[in-house]
Amino acid sequence: MAVSFDPLRGGEDPASDPISEEGWGPSAIGESGRDSQSPPLWGRCLARQRGALSRRRFSWLRPTPSAQALEAGFPSRPPLACRPSPPQGVRSAAIAAFAKLAPAALAFALLLTAWELCARLGGIAPTVLPAPSRVLAQAWENRAALAENTLPTIRATLAGFACSLVAAFVLSALVDFLPRLRRALFPLLIASQTLPLVAIAPLVVLWFGFGLLPKILLVALVTFFPMMVALVEGYAATSAEISQMLAAMGAGRWRIFCLARLPSALPYFFAGLRISITYAVVGAIFAEYAGAAKGLGIYMLSAKNNFRPDLVLAAVAVSSALTLALFGLAVLVQRLAMPWERAGRDRRAEPSGERGP
C-alpha cells in the first residue's frame, strides 16, 4: 500500500520515519493491518500517535472549528466574567449623571417652592422677603449692571487664588525639605487664620489703596492655609518603603520628592483645593466691601442702602453660581490629573459578580 505524505491530514513520509525503518510503520503492517512481527493493536496505536502529532504540528495553518475546541475541552467563547465589559454609551452616562444630580435638584426645587409660597401667601412685603420669581425678574432686568460688577470680582478671585496656590506649594516644599522651618512657620500661619476678615480688610485697603492688590492679598490670606496644610500632610503620608527604594536606586532628595512625595500628596492637595475655592469668592467680596470702585460687594452694598433686597439676593445668587463653577472646575482638574483614582473608585463600585478572575 502506497502511503502519501499529507501534513495537513496527519500523514508523514515513510522514508524519513525511523519507526518505518525498524519494521513498525505502515509498510510493515500491510494492507490488512496485521503482521507476524508486530501486534495489530500496537501498530494502530503508533499510527494514531503519528497522526495526532502531525495535526498538532500543523494546526496553526488552519482555523480550529468551535466543535474541535469543545472536544478538546476549551470553550468556544470566554466565560461571562472574562469578557470585557462593553463601553458605556452616551445615554447610560447621561442617565448615571442624572441619577447623581436628581436628589440635589429636587431638594433645591422644593426649597424654592416653599420660599415662593411663603413670600406670596404669607403677607410678607417684597422689601423684606422678595419671592424667587421677583429676584429672577430683577436680575434679568439689571443683568448689564450685574455683569459689569461680576467681572472685577472674578478677576480678583482668580488672581488671589493663583497667588495663594503658588505660595502654598512653595512654602509646603520648603517645610518638607526643612523640618525646622515647619516648627517656625506653622504657629504664625495658624495665627493668621484667627484674624477676623471684617477687621483686617479695612486695614489692608488702608495700607495698599483701593486697587486690585488688597483684594488679591485678602483672597490669598483666606485660601492659603487649607492648601498649605493639605500639602504638608500629603507629603508626610508617603510610604517609607517607596522612599527607601528610590534612595537605594540612587535618587536624590529632590527626585524622591517629585517621584514619590508629590504624587502621594495629590489627593490631600485637591481636598484642600476644594475647600479653599469656596472661600475665594467670599474673600473677594469682603475686600470689595472694605473699599472698591466696582464688584459684587459694592453692588450688594449699594442695593442694601437703597432698600432693594431683591437686587442683593440677585448678587448673592451670582456669587453662589460663581463659587459652584469654580468648585466644578476644581473637580474636573482633579479627574484629569488623577485618572487612576476614578478608575479605582469605579472598580470598587463594580459588583463582584461582574469582575473577571
Put the structure in a nutshell.
With 357 residues, the protein is mostly helical.
CATH top level label of the largest domain: Mainly Alpha
| Coarse morphology | flat
Written as H for each helix and E for each strand, in order along the chain, the element string is: HHHHHHHHHHHHHHH
Mean pLDDT: 76
Count of runs of 4 or more consecutive helical residues = 15
Q: Your description of this structure?
A:
With 357 residues, the protein is mostly helical. It folds into 2 domains: 7-61; 133-338, Orthogonal Bundle (MetI-like fold). Helix content is 72%, strand content 0%. It contains 15 helices and no strands. Helix 9 (197-208) crosses helix 12 (253-290) and helix 12 runs parallel beside helix 13 (296-305). The protein is flat.
Task: Summarize this structure as a short list of keywords or feature phrases.
MetI-like fold; 357 residues; mainly alpha
Blueprint (SSEs and pairs):
Blueprint: H1 18-21, H2 26-29, H3 40-57, H4 66-71, H5 90-121, H6 132-141, H7 143-177, H8 179-193, H9 197-208, H10 213-236, H11 240-248, H12 253-290, H13 296-305, H14 309-337, H15 339-349
